[in-house]
């Protein structure tokens, strides 16, 4: 991960404390880049294999679902056929009332979720996903980002203390891709075509760009601050891009205090959905350790869990030279987490 220059912000409030440095940015779009290295080719191959396997698994699951529903339907028909007229009526009636109950529960949950999101809009922690980077991403990277955003929205909606979520820079290809998401037009989220710097011009002092390249470590979330996350899937090809953007705009930056709680096996650069989920978890628990351990996958950590800060190197030293999220693993994480979200029964109807 990149190292960073001195942060010129002397006005840091006590939620932010200094640490490492930023780096030169490679702004060339994917098409203008050098031929792929052996390592990158290997990754590409791995990615292709992953995609093929995923498609196969999806088809199998679809077929399994179809067969299951056919089996259940047949079973139901048989039960009805073997029942007396009175039993038939009772069975149909109880099925109807079960369905009604389920629908009522669902709409109750939806209502509660809307209440929480409405409250978050008024008093919640402002969190912005800056999606103004579509011109630097390939089609599959944009697709991946859109999936991550969908996941962020779902996680936030389920939280007991959701944040006030914004998407800024929603235009062009990014807007077109987001529009394709089912129900996106009804999402209870701020969608803003302008950049946050324009949309929130009246509160520039409150803006804090979260970036792993910052020399400032976040130690709490300030309700008055607006935290910005770079909506970027780039395998860290554009090292330091968000740090440089924030510095050019003259806004504050901060990185998550990961190094104070765990050792990472590679860099501390997380995906957009991981960062949003960590913030959401922190808003619920006010505990970084729980938030990191809940969200950061085991494979990204070393065996050493709690870092003794007095003995640890500075965070800039911990940033390895080479950065590279493995896309297939990242997608796998997202998929697994999606499954968990579906499988785990939710408390308080959330
Ligand atoms: C996949 S990263 C993008 C990396 C990109 N090369 C950059 O320089 O920002 C997505 C976003 O998540 C946020 N992020 C990731 N890891 C972070 C960390 N350790 N601390 C703070 N923010 C982080 C940043 O806002 C970042 O732009």
Question: Can you lay out the helices and strands and say which pair or pack?
Answer:
Blueprint (H helix, E strand, L loop, with lengths): L15 E3 L19 H44 L3 H39 L2 E5 L8 H20 L5 E5 L3 H8 L10 E3 L3 H4 L7 E4 L5 E3 L7 E5 L10 H9 L2 E3 L17 H14 L2 H8 L19 H4 L8 H17 L7
Parallel strand pairs: 2-3, 2-7, 3-4, 5-7, 5-8
Antiparallel strand pairs: 1-6
Helix pairs in contact: 3-7, 3-10, 7-8
Enzyme class: transferase
GO molecular function, one term: tRNA (guanosine(9)-N1)-methyltransferase activity
EC number: 2.1.1.221
In short:
Residues 48-77, 310-322 have a biased composition (Basic and acidic residues). Residues 1-81, 310-336 are annotated as: Disordered. The chain has 350 residues and is an alpha/beta fold.
